[in-house]
Design a protein that fits this description.
With 278 residues, the protein is an alpha/beta fold. Helices cover 26% and strands 29% of the residues. Strands 7, 8, 9, 10, 11, 12, 13 and 14 form an eight-stranded mixed beta sheet that branches. It has a seven-stranded mixed beta sheet with strand order 6-5-4-3-2-1-15, with helices on one face. Strand 7 and strand 8 form a beta hairpin. Helix 7 crosses helix 8. The longest helix is centred in the middle third of the chain and has 22 residues. It binds zinc ion (2 copies). The site of one zinc ion has 8 residues, from loops.
Length: 278
């Protein structure tokens, strides 16, 4: 199984970082998208993936940076389909309303394309399944459990623990450390966490920017969660402030003071191959 960081950015526009999105390549043509931030379809193409490969889309929470290109996923999945094919989306309570509103906004486009292409006789088929902590579901050949994360006032927010064969991947969205994240991470081969550097963010004299401190994991938080739950690899994404490559060793060193497993600081399209783990 491969984990591809499609987008490692945040709401702050960055020419080199797409918005938050992670792709799990469970099989050659069985992929899972976790969140759908800015540019995720472009990055999927860069990762050799197409919407038609998606066994499902998992959504951690309804913050716009994690969802802004879900419409592109829905539309592109539909217009590239050769037969009526459902796109399945799992997310927290509220995702059904979100998608319904999005489908309303897409209605003119859908009508134009159906009118124009004789062979496109169906509208997008989107199946939305709202899930809550404690739920478990199958997607493709993987089993997924849902865990509470802590990102108030964003409520609900959830993370996913995906099990496939003997591989376990913990996928958190934005969250501070909490019991739900701990249970999601126990003995996982990899733990993907959105992080900020609180020591740097607090130096910037901007209250709206400083506000993000109380609902994101710092690098130290993520490393301590990884260590406490004996994960194999810690994968950092959605870094704020976004580091330059020459700063990556500093980010790794901070995490390594608390966690002695492998630490990955992600670029867009950074790929973690779980087969390689000893
Ligand atoms: Zn968020
Ligand atoms: Zn975010």
């Amino acid at each position: 199984m491969e984990i591809v960081l499609l987008g490692t950015g945040s709401p702050i526009p960055d020419p080199n970082r797409a918005g938050p999105a992670t792709l799990l390549k469970v099989g050659e043509f069985e992929h899972l998208l976790v969140d759908a931030g800015r540019g995720c379809i472009m990055r999927m193409a860069g990762a050799g993936s197409l919407p038609g490969f998606l066994a499902g889309v998992l959504v951690t929470h309804l913050h716009s940076d994690h969802l802004t290109d879900l419409n592109d996923v829905i539309t592109t999945h539909w217009i590239m389909s050769q037969q009526p094919t459902p796109l399945r989306i799992w997310g927290p309570v509220g995702i059904a309303d979100y998608v319904n509103h999005m489908m309303d906004a897409l209605a003119p486009d859908v009508s134009y394309r159906v009118a124009h292409h004789d062979d496109l006789t169906w509208e997008p088929i989107v199946e939305v399944i709202e899930v809550a902590p404690g739920d478990r579901f199958e997607v493709g050949t993987s089993s997924v459990s849902v865990h509470r994360t802590a990102h108030e006032p964003v409520e609900p927010s959830i993370g996913f623990r995906l099990e496939h064969g003997h591989y376990v991947v913990a996928l958190a969205g934005d969250t501070i450390p909490c019991d739900g994240v701990d249970e999601m991470c126990v003995d996982a081969d990899a733990y993907v966490q959105t992080v900020i550097r609180d020591d740097l963010v607090m130096q910037i004299p901007n209250q709206r920017f400083n506000d993000i401190l109380d609902y994101h994991s710092s690098v130290i938080d993520a490393a301590q969660t990884a260590a406490r739950n004996r994960v194999g690899r810690l994968v950092l994404t959605h870094m704020v402030p976004a580091p330059q490559p020459e700063q990556y060793p500093e980010w790794v060193a901070i995490a390594a003071e608390h966690f002695d497993g492998e630490i990955v600081v992600g670029d867009d399209l950074t790929t973690v191959d779980l087969v390689e783990r000893d």
